[in-house]
Hints:
Elements: E1 5-10, H1 16-23, E2 28-33, E3 38-40, E4 45-47, H2 50-58, E5 63-64, H3 72-80, E6 85-89, H4 96-99, E7 106-110, E8 118-119, H5 122-128, E9 133-140, E10 150-157, H6 164-188, E11 204-205, H7 210-213, H8 221-230, E12 237-241, E13 244-254, E14 265-268, E15 273-276, E16 281-289, E17 295-296, H9 297-304
Parallel strand pairs: 1-2, 1-6, 2-5, 6-7, 8-11
Antiparallel strand pairs: 3-4, 7-9, 9-10, 12-13, 13-16, 14-15, 15-16, 16-17
Helix pairs in contact: 1-2, 1-6, 5-8
Amino acid sequence: MKPLRIVFMGTPEFAVPSLTIIARSPHSIVGVVTQPDRPRGRGQKRLPPPIKMAALELGISPILQPERLGDPQFIAQLTQLKADLFVVVAFRILPESVFTIPPLGTINLHPSLLPRYRGAAPIHWAIIQGETTTGVTTIFIRKEVDAGNIILQKSVPIREGETAGELHDRLATIGAELLLETINRIATGTVPPLKPQDPRLVTHAPKLTREIAQLNFQQPAHRVQQWILGLSPYPGAYTYWRDKQLKIYHARALDEAVTADPGTIVQLSEEGLIVACQPGKIVLTEVQLEGKKRMSAGAFIRGYRPRVGEKLGEKTPVN
């Protein structure tokens, strides 16, 4: 196998295992492209993205952080790297002037079984929608986002009670292995016949908004559970209790009849707050009150003393 010259493009933690596994392979990473340093956290201090930090630890250079991907100077820098292949993991939408530069093309690792869950939040939506299986896919990038021909796929079962954060970490590792296999197959000329995506099977995973993250207890308990797990730990499903935001990070549905209005606290236990849904009940087991630390629901009950009969839901409007 002739080692390839690769430019790696990525930004968040999800991309770090992929960068690491390629850096430790026979292939050469001749450059990394990532987002510019941005203000983050309460102090709004400018911090480097995770991929930049990983690249520095691995001794990879140059690290390019363009504001505009179509900038002629940036495109000239990319061209000068003389890469055989560009590899993209959780980055921005590339213009055609970029993804057509390398002679072997540009490939992307996507955390779903394409064409299902194209878009910004495939891991979250797979859990929210109650899927029992998801996976990772490598594709050749083309102009339409997430629509390129499929190179390789691997199915991954979603575990009972698994959060988006836990699934994210598993898929990052599994995806890195599939990505390296894809690169090796390109290097050896053993890529299987490319598989076009069936447009009839396309589903979407839109960006998560604050409105999406607000819980609705007027639905079955198992749907509320899926919503909570699919948004945990980020951005975090939330409701309101005594006009304060209450984020819920973990919960368990109970298939038990209840006559109380949806959102009503019907029981308090060491395990958590038991809340009425429509139908069923849900045990909220890990929470975070506005301005406070994340804690077990048992600790929340002892510290803040919610009462049976209180209702979770909308914040009281200010007149």
